[in-house]
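so i finally got all the pieces together for this one. its two components total, 361 residues if u count the protein bits. some of the lines might not be protein, just check the labels. i wanna see the whole assembly predicted at once instead of chain by chain like last time, that was a mess tbh
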Amino acid sequence: MAVELWMVGAGANVTLAIVYGAISLIMLQGLVRGRQWFTNPLATATAGIFVTCTLGHGLHAFHTLEPSLGFGHATGAAARTAMASPLLLSWDVLTAVVAVWYFTLRSRLQLIFEGAALCEDLEERHAKAQELHDNVVQGLVQAKLALDLGRREEGERAIAETLESAKSIITGLLGDARKAPLGPGDLRRERAA
Amino acid sequence: MIFEGGDVLRQMAVPALVRAGDAPPITVVTIDDHPDLRRLYRLAFEGSALQVVGEAPDGRAGVDVVRRTQPRLVLLDLSMPDMDGLEALVELRQVAPEARIVVLSGFTRHRLGPVVAELGAVDYIEKGARPTELMGRLLDAARSPVPKLQPPTQARLRELRARLNELV
C-alpha cells in the first residue's frame, strides 16, 4: 500500500494525541498529589490546554480513519483532503516534533508544582510572622513599657494576654505543621528548654 | 485624633528629658495601630520636652494628621493595616518635609534599618527600648538635620517593598 500524504498527517496527529495525553496525565497527577487544583491556576490551566489539545488532535486523526472503519465516508474524505494540504501537513509534522521534544523535558514539569508550593510556603511564613509580631511582640512591648512606667497592673495584664496569644499561635502552628492530629511522642524535644 | 492644647506634664527622673519652663515643646505625632502603645507613649512623654499633638492607627490616617499638624517629629510603626510604614514614610516626606521621621518597630533594626534610612527616616528604634532611651533618641532626632534625599523612584520603591516582604 502506497503511503499517501493524509496518512502522514494522521500519523502526526496520532503522535500529538499520545504525547499530549501523556503530558496531561503527568500534569493531572501533579495537581492531584499536591492538591493544587485551585491554588495553582497556572498548572490547572496548562493541564486544561493539554487535555483539550489531546482531544482535538485525536479527533482529527479519528476523522481521517473513519472510511477505513466503514462509516463517515463524506467527513473522512474531507478530513483526508484537508490533512493532505502541504501547509497543514508540514505544520502538523513540525508540531509533532516539538511535542516529542517537549515530552523529553517532562521531568522539569515538576517545577510548576514546586514553585507554587514554595510561594504558598512563603506566604504562610509571612502571615505567621505578622501574627507573631501583632500578637506577641506588640503585647510584650506593651507589657515592658507599662512596667517601665510603673504601671504594674497593666503590665501584668498585658503579659497574661500575650501568654494566651502565644500559646494559641504555637498550638495552631503545631497543628498546621503536621496536618494530622498530634499523638504520643510528637511533642518530645531533642533537649530540655 | 489631634490633641488640642498641652498634656499634663509629668516630671521625669532624667533631668535632660524634662522640658525647660520657657522652651517650646517638640511636637510629635505617633502612628501605630496598637492603641495601648499610643496611649503609653503619650503617658511616657508627659512632663518631657516631647508633646504628642496627634496620633493615628495606620499610615493613611497618619499622613493626614501629619499634614494638618506639621510636627517636628513623627514616630512611625512599620507593620500597620491599610497603609504600612514604608508607604507612609514616602508620603510623610512629601506632606511634611521638615518633620524628622523616626521608625519605631517590632522588627530588628539590622535588616530594616537601611531600608527606612534610604526612604528618609532619621532613626530606627526597636520597640522595647526603655522610655528614657526612647525619649533621648527622639530628642536627638529632633535636633538632627532633615535628610536631603531625592524621593525614590517607583521602581526603587517596588524593590524595597519586595525586600521588606522577604525580610518580615
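Residues 110-148 of chain A form the longest helix (39 residues).
Chain A has six helices and no strands.
anyway lmk what u think
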